[in-house]
C-alpha cells in the first residue's frame, strides 16, 4: 500500500531515506497519512480522516494537540533518547561553566584583546575568575530517564559523587546506570545534600515550580542548579531572590525567559541541547522507523497518546487495527462483528492507556471494505485501518 507523508519542518535526509521506496512525500496536509514535525505548532490545524500518525522528531510534544489527535484516532509518536547524548554533552559543559568562571574570563579577554600587554595583565586579572573543581563534589540528578542516566554516568566518570532520584525509574535505565550512583527515594534528600542539582523531569503538576522558596531553603549555600528540561520547573521569584542572596551561586538553563536571561549569575543557552547534527539525524531516523512500523504492521512504539502495542508481523491473511475509546464491552463487540461476518479471529492484541485503547486483530481472510465499515460503525471506535 502506498503511503504519503508531509514534513512540517526540515527533517534530516537520513531519516526520510529509511522510508520504503513506495512512500511519497507530499506538500498537502489533506493527502498525508503521516506527519513528521519538529517545532511547528499543530494546534490550529484541522486534520483529515486520511491522517493516521504524527511523529515528533524530538522528545517534547507541546506543539501537538495530543487529545485532539487521540480523539480522531491519530497516533502521536516522539523520539525519546534519540537526542540524549547531545543534551548530555551540553550539560557536562554547563557543569564546568557553573564551577569555573570561564564566561567571565572570556569576556575579559574580549575586552582586552587590543592590549599589547595582555599576557602580563591577565596574570593580575585572572584571580577574579577563580572557580572550583567538580571532582569530589556531589551532583544530584532529579529524573533518571535517557538523559538523566547519561548525565549521571558521565559525572560519575569525572569523579563526582552522584545521587539520583526517580520514582518511575525503568528497568532499562536502571540497568544502564553505573552501580556507583546512589539512588534515593525523595527529591528532598538531593536538595539537602548536593552541591550541584540538575533537572531531567517532564512538566507535571508534581514537578511544576519544584524549585521554589521552600525547596531552595533546604539547599546548601552556593548551590549550582542546572535546568535543561523545562523553564516552568523553577519559580522565577524564588530564583531571583536566591541568586541575589548567593544561596544559588549559578543557574544554568537551556530555556531562558526574558526575566531569567537578565539575572546576574545566570548562564543561558537558546535551547541548544539537541541542536547537533547527530541528534537531528537520530531523531529523524527514529521517527521514520516508528511511522513505518505503524503504517506497515500496525505496531506502536513511543506513542504519547496511545498505548504501546507490538503484534509483530502479520502471518495470517488479514490484519485490522482499531483506535477506540477505553470503555467496557469493546472487545466483545469486535468479536461479535467478526462472528456475524463468519470470519475467524486467529490472534488479537489489545492495549489501553487512559481514555484510549488500541486493538490489532489478525483474521483468517483479507479485510474487506464491508468488514472495515462494520467495525467503524461500532460506538466508541475512532479510526479503523486495514493493514492487510
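^ C-alpha cells above, recovered residues below v
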Amino acid at each position: 500500500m502506498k503511503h504519503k507523508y508531509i514534513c512540517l519542518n526540515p527533517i534530516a535526509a537520513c531519516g526520510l531515506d529509511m522510508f520504503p521506496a513506495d512512500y511519497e512525500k507530499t506538500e498537502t496536509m489533506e493527502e498525508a497519512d503521516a506527519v513528521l514535525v519538529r517545532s511547528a505548532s499543530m494546534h490550529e490545524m484541522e486534520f483529515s480522516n486520511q491522517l493516521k500518525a504524527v511523529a515528533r522528531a524530538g522528545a517534547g510534544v507541546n506543539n501537538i494537540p495530543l487529545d485532539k489527535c487521540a480523539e480522531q484516532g491519530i497516533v502521536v509518536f516522539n523520539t525519546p533518547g534519540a537526542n540524549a547524548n547531545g543534551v548530555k554533552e551540553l550539560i557536562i559543559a554547563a557543569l564546568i561553566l557553573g564551577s569555573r568562571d570561564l564566561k567571565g574570563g572570556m569576556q575579559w579577554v574580549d575586552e582586552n584583546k587590543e592590549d599589547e600587554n595582555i599576557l602580563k595583565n591577565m596574570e593580575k586579572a585572572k584571580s577574579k575568575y577563580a572557580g572550583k573543581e567538580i571532582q569530589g563534589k556531589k551532583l544530584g540528578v532529579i529524573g533518571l530517564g535517557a538523559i538523566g542516566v547519561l548525565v549521571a554516568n558521565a559525572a560519575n566518570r569525572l569523579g563526582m559523587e552522584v545521587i539520583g532520584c526517580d520514582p518511575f525509574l525503568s528497568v532499562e535505565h536502571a540497568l544502564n546506570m553505573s552501580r556507583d550512583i546512589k539512588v534515593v527515594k525523595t527529591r528532598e534528600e538531593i536538595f539537602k545534600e548536593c552541591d550541584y542539582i540538575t533537572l531531567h523531569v517532564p512538566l507535571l503538576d508534581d514537578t511544576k515550580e519544584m524549585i521554589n522558596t521552600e525547596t531552595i531553603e533546604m539547599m546548601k549555600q552556593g548551590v549550582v542548579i542546572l535546568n535543561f528540561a523545562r523553564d516552568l520547573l523553577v519559580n522565577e521569584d524564588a530564583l531571583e531572590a536566591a541568586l541575589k542572596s548567593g544561596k544559588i551561586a549559578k543557574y544554568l538553563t537551556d530555556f531562558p525567559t526574558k526575566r531569567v536571561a537578565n539575572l546576574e549569575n545566570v548562564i543561558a543557552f537558546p535551547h541548544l541541547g539537541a541542536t547537533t547534527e547527530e541528534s537531528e539525524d537520530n531523531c529523524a531516523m527514529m521517527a521514520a522507523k516508528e511511522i513505518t512500523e505503524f503504517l506497515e504492521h500496525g505496531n506502536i512504539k513511543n506513542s504519547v497518546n496511545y498505548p504501546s502495542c507490538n503484534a509483530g508481523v502479520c502471518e495470517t491473511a488479514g490484519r485490522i487495527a482499531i483506535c477506540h475509546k477505553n470503555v467496557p464491552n469493546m472487545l466483545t463487540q469486535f468479536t461479535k462483528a467478526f462472528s456475524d461476518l463468519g470470519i475467524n479471529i486467529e490472534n488479537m492484541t489489545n492495549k489501553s492507556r487512559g481514555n484510549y485503547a488500541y486493538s490489532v486483530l489478525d483474521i483468517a481472510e483479507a479485510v474487506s471494505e464491508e468488514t472495515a465499515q462494520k467495525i467503524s460503525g461500532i460506538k466508541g471506535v475512532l479510526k479503523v485501518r486495514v493493514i492487510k
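The chain has a mean pLDDT of 96.
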